[in-house]
């Protein structure tokens, strides 16, 4: 289902409606328990801190997703609704202006009250009320909003991991979120180009299952013949770029990107520590602590500026990569649509990109590992209509000054992902698990 689809409850038999509610109840329990499990390795102090304005404390994530269910579902559909605490309506509203006031995003880490224990109590109370509502409601709008809320929470599960990683990276002790290191020595094969025929293709949500409003409507677009690299760009590829002066040569960079590099004094991706010995490899901070860089794993935590600069450098310096560029989001989706949604996703528990393992002659790592930057600006599809009400603020109002990423990452829950999923971030964002795949014209 999706938040803008017409009501469907009237078209269901009573048996179908019961089965739908039962399935929704199971998914609700599973998603909420997964959030608790992700927070389990963390102390109350870990859950309180905020490392930068773009990140949020774990406690805030846990509270905000609960706020969503209380505000958009229980307040509207629960008989005799009464909020757990009326003050939470303001404290844990993110950007929904239609709901009312919001607390300052850069200061979320200053919200020492309510404490974490109270947030857990709130979640437990809301979960009990939601269980009763799901059991008894047949209202199509309620069921759609619950489905939306579950995917919303899965988004915040990914954000919880990325924000915790940034927080822990600031600590000189370089603490680990998890001490299970997932990597085994694997050598990545040399990349190959996989030809794509182009032609008239359909992209966007097919209408089966859940989707966000920004994935619709499904529509046709023309593609010229092109090729996609069979695997993601690796840390080893990127280390060649760094050693070749990639961050010191303005000709590879868009003007705004070069200004950004100079202003930030950047010399490498986020979380890298460059070695004093020119012959040594960098170290990199991960959710498993500080480790030696593995050149065969996909490069991660790069901005759109960096991805674009690498593609220009690769095209100019590697004959086998001549013409390299970032793919468009339509090129990516057309290639990914026939493939199963499987890969190194959150359930794999690696929480770090893994080397490509060759399997035939096709495309590798299309789902999971890292979100793949595209050259496509985040904009509305032809005929796009935002969802009605405050939930319509979910996607549409951010359709400016952002670029689209595709494919999910090692922190993305697998049930949350599909070929039509459109992630988006500003050009300088790199604390997310973002990387790249190269494309070129045929």
Number of strands: 12
Oligomer: single chain
Q: Helicity, in percent?
A: 25-40%
**SSE order:** HHHHHHEEEEHHEEEHHEEEEE
Number of helical runs? 10
Report the CATH superfamily of the largest domain.
paralog of FGE (formylglycine-generating enzyme)
Distance between the termini: 38 Å
Instruction: Compute the average pLDDT.
Output: 93
- The top level CATH class name of the largest domain: Alpha Beta
Strand content: 5-15%
Largest sheet: 4 strands, mixed
Radius of gyration: 22 Å
The CATH architecture designation of the largest domain is Alpha-Beta Complex
Number of domains: 2
Low-confidence stretches: 1-12
Indicate the structural class. alpha+beta
